[in-house]
Design goal:
Helix content: over 70%
Number of helices: 16
Radius of gyration: 21 Å
Largest sheet: none
Number of strands: 0
């Protein structure tokens, strides 16, 4: 594996650099998404469709806690990227140490609260009727292992901020491979049901953490922290928190959406409707992997060059990322439109679910070709340390537009109103993001 230095983010051609950063990120996201996808397929075929709905109930709680690690990682990595770009090694080290301390304290606290309020949280997120018991079994084990996942997600963003995307890719591949192997062993061979699925997932988090820890202790990392770097520094904490809050707020909104969707759909169509959404949610995680990979690859490039005041390179990175991501989004759109029914049949043999899911999936992905602009635009403001616009633009798609739409439209259109809310939110948020990104490029990204 060739060694990549952070300085290359500031001197390599943007197109080549974006591919170098985005391909490993895309592969990592692909493998992680395939893990979730195949995990759902295994559970659906070896345990049953209700088990798919049960996992969908648990995910928003576990992922919100894990998202603390991601939030701290993204916020802190923006600081690290700019510090490396400005050749301030001590600031980068101090930031990384504070990220680790903050991740540990907050995730352990939330896991304790999550387990204490288990009987309240599961029904609140749609774990009702036949869904409750399998969801509770899965929840108890998976949430207990979430601190390992949070540290992995935090560490992964720092690895990428150092300009080492291949190592970040491996960190995402390891838990996926472990999880799928253990799924087969524990669910299919040992017939442990939901407990087996939960144990496989938690074990994969631990293996991922072991790899990330190895990376930072090895010669591959440029960030060699000491005990003194773990002590909190208020200015650094403020910057990590303000930028990381963008990611955390986005995941909080995602968790709220799961809560609303599971409850609204359960009321409209029972367990089957929740299962339909669970399948579509997995496809949303999986199908957009190349677009998300470009977005992840774009972040350190924009952050480093902004810190180095190379604004021409920042502008070029925005344009290149939007073009690449839009082309990939168009391919995803075509695949969903043509193969939605075949996709659903992979998850389940239940005829009712097979009949209901394809049209819903087509509506959900209807505006996919334009979402790249929204994702790259919001990511730009986060990469360059502008927390407020990053927060508002990140929340615009799911928070400001989707939640009001999904609360209103089903009253008039039933389940169709739920699915139509997705493309309408995509269109409105892309228009808003495009306006602010254009203004930023015109007014702020001028060569010194």
């Amino acid at each position: 594996m060739s060694k990549i230095t952070a300085a290359e983010l500031g001197n390599k051609p943007i197109g080549k650099l974006l591919i170098q950063q985005a391909v490993p990120a895309s592969v990592g996201i692909l493998v992680m998404s395939l893990n979730i996808l195949v995990d759902t397929i295994f559970v659906g075929n070896w345990i049953g469709p209700v088990a798919i709905a049960a996992i969908n109930v648990v995910l928003p709680v576990s992922f919100f806690i894990a998202a603390l690690g991601m939030a701290i990682g993204v916020g802190g990595s923006s600081v690290v990227s700019r510090a490396l770009g400005a050749n301030n090694q001590e600031r980068a080290l101090r930031t990384f140490g504070n990220m680790i301390s903050l991740s540990l304290i907050l995730t352990l606290l939330l896991v304790g609260l999550g387990l204490f309020f288990i009987d309240f949280l599961i029904p609140a997120f749609g774990g009702k009727g036949a869904i409750f018991e399998p969801a509770k079994i899965y929840y108890q084990v998976v949430v207990s292992g979430v601190p390992f996942l949070a540290l992995c997600m935090m560490g992964n963003t720092v690895i990428r901020a150092e300009g080492k995307p291949k190592f970040a890719m491996v960190a995402m591949i390891i838990p996926s491979v472990i999880n799928l192997f253990l799924d087969y062993l524990l669910i299919n061979v040992m017939e442990m049901g939901m407990l087996g699925a939960a144990l496989a997932t938690t074990a994969s988090y631990i293996f991922c953490f072991a790899y990330v820890l190895w990376f930072f202790l090895s010669k591959n990392s440029e960030l060699k922290i000491s005990l003194s770097h773990f002590g909190f520094k208020l200015p650094i904490l403020r910057e990590i928190s303000s930028l990381g809050f963008v990611t955390l707020a986005r995941q909080a909104v995602v968790s709220i959406i799961y809560l609303l969707m599971n409850n609204i759909l359960f009321d409209l169509g029972g367990e089957n409707a929740v299962t339909v959404y669970a399948i579509i949610a997995r496809m949303l995680m999986f199908a957009l992997f190349p677009v998300l990979g470009v977005t992840q690859g774009f972040l350190p490039i924009a952050g480093y060059n902004y810190g180095a005041r190379e604004f021409t390179r920042v502008k070029k990175s925005i344009n290149t990322a939007v073009i690449y991501a839009s082309g990939l989004a168009l391919l995803v759109f075509a695949g969903i439109m043509f193969f939605s029914e075949d996709i659903v049949k992979i998850f389940t043999g239940n005829e009712q679910i097979i009949a209901a899911t394809p049209s819903a999936m087509r509506w959900v992905f209807a505006a996919t070709p334009i979402v790249a602009l929204q994702l790259i635009g919001a990511a730009y403001f986060q990469a360059v340390g502008k927390a407020l616009p990053a927060l508002l633009l990140t929340l615009s798609r799911q928070g400001f537009f989707f939640i009001p739409l999904v609360l209103i439209l089903p009253h008039y259109l039933g389940e169709l109103g739920v699915w139509i809310s997705f493309p309408l939110a995509d269109i409105l948020s892309t228009i808003v993001t495009g306006y602010f990104l254009h203004r930023e490029i015109k007014l702020k990204l001028k060569p010194d």
